Amino acid sequence: MHTPFRFPAPACGWRVPALLATLFVAGCASAPPVQPEAPAPSKVVADPTPADAAPMVDEAGRSQQFARWVAGFRTGARAAGIDEATLHLAFDSVRLVPRAIASDRAQPEFTRTVWDYLDGALSAQRVARGREKLLQLRPVVDTMAVRYGVPAEVLIAIWGMESNYGSFVGDIPTIDALATLGFEGRREAWARGQLLAALKILQRRDIDRAQMVGSWAGAMGQTQFLPSNFLAYAVDADGDGRRDIWGSLPDVMASTANFLARSGWQAGQPWGLEVRLPPGFNHARADLELRQPTTQWAAEGVQSMDGAPLPALEGASILLPASARGPAFLVGTNFRTILRYNNSTSYALAVGLLAQQLAGGPAVQTPWPRDLAPLSRSELLALQTALSARGFDSGAPDGTMGPATQRGVRHYQRSLGLPADGYPTEELLQRLQEQGAAAH
């Protein structure tokens, strides 16, 4: 559960802050590294490099370096309690996966808007297929819904987002992917921790190595668990003695529900809903960190789209994923729980809205501001630089949208008398550049 910008089945390994993750998706918690030593290297087979992978400067030399890294890790894993049979199974024919390195290093220049993401995530085909799957699997998912307090529609929605209802769980051996990322070194401590967790799964015989496949960043199974999350939350619901999130739908649904339940899901509460904001609303208050009871939001004039009373939520926030011109949502604890599954507001919105439609509810009613083009990384870098030059601190310029940049944008918007929604636009960048040119 877990890529930079995951669509349609966001399931890789890196995640960014939830704030303004309408532009970005992806992060994972680091696990303690295994301290390596160095016996004889394992047999290593180089994976054929696909056309989109980073070129290998010296493929033979890289394979030898990889073999030495694996040998060192293997010694550390043995010291951590992994038995010889599991080490042989995992590493005797481990492969370097160049496309995992290429994907990890990729920083796309252009990002997708939240509405573009949701157009794919909530396509008519996906909604229709989800309804079919919900009918087919009612006995299984209803059982898990009762046991864990998570609605069946939410479980089906996550399943649909992560693997298109089980139709694609990834095709890269998890051991190979994590060993490659550990060797690459950008997030070696994290990859080592996940690789050790994967070895523990093999040692417990939950799954065979050949069937332990997933994304380039190590997320596995039909709802894309990282190995550490598998160890913590996976459930043997069919009673066969194995936790199989690849082939057993009871295990898939129970494991997903268990993750959500233990991550703070509140039974009986909605994830949120689309709302209508009152005239003169202070858009700077649309912040996931600002939480108050829905009774307070109602007192301030926030209304549901159909005029019904707002649901009773204690820590509710207003979310504006596409500027003050787009839809507004009131979200609560369960929305934040979905963010723990995948720390992206686009993803959490997609899960909530898909579940809502599977249950017979409406799609988003307010039009998206489709004329707003997203800023590219280089344009966002220019915006951050210009904001700081004008005295609106946006943190260190890095071409990535985060809380500091949002605060800087809001302060600049207030100086212009604009709605302070913190949303970066081409118009704001142009104004900043014109003001900078005039100042010189």
Please outline the helices and strands.
Blueprint: E1 45-46, H1 59-79, H2 84-91, E2 95-96, H3 98-105, H4 114-121, H5 124-136, H6 138-148, H7 152-163, E3 172-173, H8 174-184, H9 188-203, E4 213-214, H10 227-233, H11 249-262, E5 272-276, H12 294-299, E6 303-304, E7 317-319, E8 328-331, H13 333-341, H14 345-358, H15 377-389, H16 403-416, H17 426-439
Helix pairs in contact: 1-8, 3-8, 4-14, 5-7, 6-7, 6-11, 7-11, 7-14, 8-9, 9-10, 10-11, 13-14, 15-17
Coarse morphology: globular
Radius of gyration: 23 Å
Distance between the termini: 49 Å
Q: Stretches where pLDDT falls below 50 for ≥5 residues?
A: 2-56
CATH class of the domain at 272-358: Mainly Alpha
Structural class by secondary-structure content = mainly alpha
Supply the number of helical segments.
17
| Rounded mean pLDDT score | 87
Can you tell me the CATH architecture of the domain at 272-358?
Answer: Orthogonal Bundle
The biggest beta sheet reads: 4 strands, antiparallel
Helix content: 40-55%
* CATH fold type of the domain at 272-358: Lysozyme
Residue fraction in strands = 5-15%
Strand order of the largest sheet: 6-5-8-7
Q: What pattern of helices and strands is seen along the backbone?
A: EHHEHHHHHEHHEHHEHEEEHHHHH
Total beta strand runs: 8
